[in-house]
Design goal:
about 0% strand; 8 helices; rod-shaped
Length: about 270
């Protein structure tokens, strides 16, 4: 009977404390909500850059693969440039090469003419690569700083827990669970924001390097074509050419006599 009374008294005396994300953030106060808002902005910005840059890179690579052969099959570079979209990276590089070729012809020194053409194409490549790299510094910044922003929330949460212990003179779990929980949540959120940003940065950077290699190859082909006055062109598949395997399959059928069939005709016996 005595044990039951003591248990009931302890139950009635226990504080009705709720634990959860909202309660933990409320324990942190305006500072915690401000830090959470900053990390939400970082996360939304990171995913926005990842999605938009992914589709931008896809458009650049697909356009080159689709129109490269048509460009080099054209009668001139000016005609071939029309195969690309007006505002595409490849159209910009081709137009810059054509303009530089026209201007280099006015130079009397062949070495200076070559350097001018090479420098113009290099500047055009650099401007395209710089545009493709837009937004990546933000991803790098988020990946490097988000854990420390979360750590700031952790430090503030632990500090508030220690202040609460000192003010109440009690280190019971109900007194410190809120501030400590808020501190740990901030660390976790900082990592959740930073890790996707780092993966997105490395992924987009690797695709940008692939596009840069394609731009460099295209620029080299343009320079060789201009300096040779159209004599040098990269090898491209002829228009309407059938794949080798398909041609090999149709060759025996074409060689077979028109009247030949798989059936044999019986011979008349005398």
């Amino acid at each position: 009977m005595l044990i039951e009374l003591l248990t009931a008294a302890a139950t009635d005396a226990a504080p009705d404390t709720e634990f959860g994300f909202i309660q933990a953030m409320e324990e942190g106060g305006p500072v915690a909500w401000s830090i959470l808002g900053v990390m939400v902005i970082m996360s939304v910005g990171s995913f926005y850059i990842l999605i938009t840059k992914y589709f931008e890179q896809n458009k650049v690579m697909k356009e080159y693969r689709a129109n490269r052969a048509a460009f080099w099959r054209a009668g001139s570079l000016k005609e071939g440039a029309t195969k690309f979209d007006k505002n595409s990276a490849w159209r910009q590089l081709a137009d810059d090469a054509i303009r530089a070729g026209d201007e280099s012809d006015k130079m009397t020194d062949n070495l200076e003419s070559h350097d001018w053409l090479h420098g113009t194409l290099a500047r055009s490549e650099a401007s395209i690569n710089a545009k493709l790299a837009g937004g990546l510094p933000f991803l790098a910044t988020v990946g490097a700083t988000a854990p420390f922003v979360g750590l700031l929330g952790t430090v503030i949460g632990i500090y508030r827990a220690l202040i609460k212990i000192g003010a109440t003179g009690s280190a019971s779990i109900d007194q410190v669970a809120g501030p400590v929980g808020e501190a740990l949540i901030m660390t976790a959120i900082g990592l959740l924001v930073a890790v996707p940003a780092v993966f997105a940065y490395n992924y987009l950077q690797s695709r940008n390097r692939r596009i840069a290699a394609m731009l460099s190859g295209f620029s080299t082909d343009l320079q060789a074509n201009i300096t040779s006055h159209g004599a040098v062109r990269p090898a491209v598949k002829a228009a309407g050419s059938a794949p080798a395997g398909k041609a090999a399959k149709t060759a025996p059928a074409a060689a077979r006599p028109a009247g030949a069939t798989g059936a044999t005709t019986p011979t008349n016996k005398a």
